[in-house]
Amino acid sequence: MPKSNTGSDAYDPQTIEEKWRRRWEDRHTNSVDIHAADRPYYNLMMFPYPSAEGLHVGNVFAFIGSDIHGRFRRLQGWDVFEPIGFDAFGIHSENYALKVNTHPARLIPANIARFTEQLKRIGLMLDWDHEVRTTDPAYYKWTQWIFLQLFKGGHAVKKQAPVNWCPECKTVLANEQVEDGYCERHPGVRVHQRFLAQWFFTITKYAKRLLDSLQTLDWSESTRLMQANWIGRSEGAELVFETPAGTPIPVYTTRPDTVFGATYLVLAPEHHLVDEVTASEQRDAVGRYRRSAIQQDIVSRKVGDREKTGVFAGTYVRNPATGESVPIWIADYVLMEYGTGAIMAVPAHDERDYEFA
To answer: Residue 190's closest CA among 297, 288, 291, 309?
Structure first.
């Protein structure tokens, strides 16, 4: 143990930690032969994206938790493979390059070098022999290959859909990145909705299989519930309401047996039939409402306890069960991403329909 200025034994973290990091590196302590491992265990933490001058405390917090789990598994006799890489593509890296006025081709390698230095100083059991960088053509050619296989198999489709858009990030945000209507990275910037052409993977075809597999995972109940909600599988039926002109409006419902109690129809503001079913005297009101709705982010529209708003389209459809005419409304609590973007409203059996009515 090195001596302190007073002559007593003292812990010198720079000296001690450097000694052990060098020894781990020389002995390849954290390298795993992934092909010959007797008890392989894959312990992956998300790759950081090098869009800043260095790691932030959230990165370190998450990596340490994952690393503790990996070390625990290694002590149990598993051959733990803990890979590391850098998610260097994307708008975050581009925005940072614009911010500091440096070309990404020069900036990103420099950032990765800094991130690497910091990650090694933390002392994580990362296997640096298998480091990956998403900007490396040897890596992203396989990303492209996987996409092409999905496309050829009919599992990658392109369509227009609403997204959360941050004007500061200049990119799409996941619902989890929106906090009370604002971007998590830019708390003062309000997120709004845009319609963009996007590629989708048809994972909903495998919803039941995904849900069944959740029960086999050693996860907490809260995590399994969150994943189940994200998968979002529901069972129901599609019913068709018709306008007096004969235009069919399909609606999805989990309770087709309640169609006798349907007292009105609701379309999402983005529904492609809104213009067609809106009466001339209601066009201005519907147009204003649609413009207002599109300024909201998707998350805010999903919140169940907020006040429901809408506007009458000025027209009616026929209830297929009773033959009665029911009014068509446009309301933002109906989302295009769910079902057909149109619902039959049954106030007697649905709390949201009751509140809106």
So the answer is: 297
CA-based nearest residue to 356, from 336, 337, 331, 326 = 331
Look at the pTM and tell me if it is higher than 0.85.
no
Its domain, for residue 225, covers: 205-232
Helix crossing, 91-100 with 104-122: angle to 10°? 110
Contact 100, 107 (CB under 8 A): yes
Q: Residue 138: enclosing H or E segment and its boundaries?
A: helix 137-152
Q: In terms of Cα–Cα distance, which of 343, 325, 147, 161 is closest to 237?
A: 343
**Chain Cα centroid distance, residue 351:** 28
Counted domains in the chain: 4
Please tell me the predicted confidence (pLDDT) of residue 235.
Answer: 83
Percentage of the chain with pLDDT > 70?
A: 97
Q: Which helix (H) or strand (E) holds 90?
A: none
The b-or-e profile of 209-225 (16+ CB within 10 A means b, else e) is ebeeeeeeeeeeeeeee
**CB-based burial label for 103 (10 Å; 0-12, 13-18, 19+):** exposed
Tokens of 180: 């009370």
Asked whether residue 59 falls in the same domain as residue 25, the answer is yes
- Say yes or no: 90 and 31 in one domain: yes
- Within a 10 A sphere around the Cβ of 47, how many other Cβ atoms? 17
Do 166 and 125 sit in the same domain of this protein? no
